[in-house]
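Lab meeting, item 3. Inverse folding demo.
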């Protein structure tokens, strides 16, 4: 069932949180994410577009241990090297790193129980082949969890205008992943309020 919480009350909440998220807010975001991913011991999770921050994959790796694993994907070798260094510094042994491409994350087929795209989907330059490969990498009934931001005032703007802000409205996102063969199971908004006009939401989908 889709959950939508955007409202006038939501805008009032946003006004009160026009600052960097607190540790409590980040922990709440992590809880939403972990539940959507269906984390438990022994499963395999891919984090596509990890970036330089390894907070999420390291936490997830500890949740799925023993027996589970996390694979981080980046398209720049420098980012891959940085992630490896950060993971080694945390002494986490069940995190791997893959150098992907703009049109292919380089993940093994039917190998993952869940795939996470956190604040990265709007950066995809070739979303159609990326989604196809992501779908192929998921096990049957595997979960795709996407977190993105959108502007409340610009929610109905064109995709091009939203992309300039590094935004993507949930309606646009859901339309694109549905066309790629996913079924949207849940939308939660917001999972984080970044500014009076900027909200982060979560979409959970599964393969058909």
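The presenter then showed the designed sequence:
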């Amino acid at each position: 069932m889709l959950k939508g919480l955007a409202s006038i009350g939501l805008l009032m909440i946003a006004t009160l949180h026009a600052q960097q998220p607190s540790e409590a807010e980040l922990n709440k975001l992590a809880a939403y994410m972990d539940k959507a991913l269906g984390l438990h011991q022994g499963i395999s999770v891919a984090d596509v577009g990890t970036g330089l921050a390894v907070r999420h994959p390291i936490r997830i790796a500890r949740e799925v241990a023993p027996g589970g694993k996390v694979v981080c994907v980046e398209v720049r070798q420098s980012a891959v090297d940085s992630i490896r260094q950060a993971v080694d510094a945390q002494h986490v042994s069940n995190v791997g790193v893959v150098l992907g491409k703009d049109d292919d994350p380089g993940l093994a087929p039917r190998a993952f129980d869940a795939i996470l795209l956190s604040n990265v989907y709007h950066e995809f330059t070739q979303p159609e082949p990326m989604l196809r490969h992501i779908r192929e990498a998921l096990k049957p009934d595997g979960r795709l969890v996407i977190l993105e931001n959108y502007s409340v005032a610009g929610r109905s703007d064109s995709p091009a205008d939203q992309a300039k802000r590094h935004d993507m409205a949930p309606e646009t996102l859901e339309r694109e992943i549905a066309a790629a063969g996913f079924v949207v199971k849940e939308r939660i908004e917001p999972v984080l309020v970044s500014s009076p006009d900027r909200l982060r939401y979560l979409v959970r989908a599964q393969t058909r």
